[in-house]
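Researcher: For the annotation table, I need structure tokens for Multidrug ABC transporter ATP-binding protein. Please keep the output clean. Sequence:
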Amino acid sequence: MPMVRISNVRKAYKDGFEALKGASLDIHEGEILALLGPNGAGKTTLISTICGITQPTSGTIIVGGHDVVTDYRGARSLVGLVPQEINLEPFERVMNTVRFSRGLFGKPKDDALLERILRELSLWDKRDNRIMELSGGMKRRVLIAKALAHEPRVLFLDEPTAGVDVELRRDMWEIVAGLKEAGVTIILTTHYIEEAEAIADRIGVINKGEILLVEEKTALMTRLGQKELRIELHDPVDALPEALADRGLRIEEDGQVLVYCYDTAQDRTGIATLIREVSEAGLVLRDLQTRQNSLEDIFVGLVSKQEDAA
């Protein structure tokens, strides 16, 4: 059974707004799932519902065999959450804040574990500081330490690197890699698509409360990825020669470049034939370049397609 099973979850408010529209998703133990979506897509609502912060209008969510509604304590004990908003007691000291979080989950005192967490987050020398004395980046580190204090099996990172320094971002991904090796399931929402592309095992795309796609990252890139062949001409053209009119080319950079898109999964790309036809049409090539679609290109395309269909 998946570590997290989300089945046809809907979240609607009294004014009729639907933040989630029948979302379904299985998240496997020990994987890193990156959930991408624009602002207002439903990412935070989905995480809040899984964590029991808000209840679904309908549907079920099971975490480690525990229903988040009927067995809230069992489900929540398995979950660590690093929220977007920094909401910490300003007068409390760092070590006490993290120690208190562990105690809330009924875990026995383990200052050796907390020391290791604080050291990994470069917080050990700040352990006796009050929260109000810390920078924004250090407060973000305290949030992560709090989420890890009770040794969760599922960790939610809701836009964790938004507005933080490069050093924290690097430290965080090192910690995430270590948690994955230990079998922790990690769900990440981010606006930094290059980070999702770099560390995630699977990618989910959510928009307008609907999960548009969930797929293994490499397979997604292969299935949806396209390459562009950019043909730079010696002399610009105003229009395509008639012999090239049906080849799906587009003209860019004031007629200086012809762009040809092709599917990387096809056995034959047609590039060799195209180049020959371009030469036979009397066009002189100056340079050739290829460009692979990025995950961001794919993400924007999926969201745009949903917008067009609406």
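Researcher: And a one-line annotation?
Model: The two ends are 35 Å apart (CA to CA).
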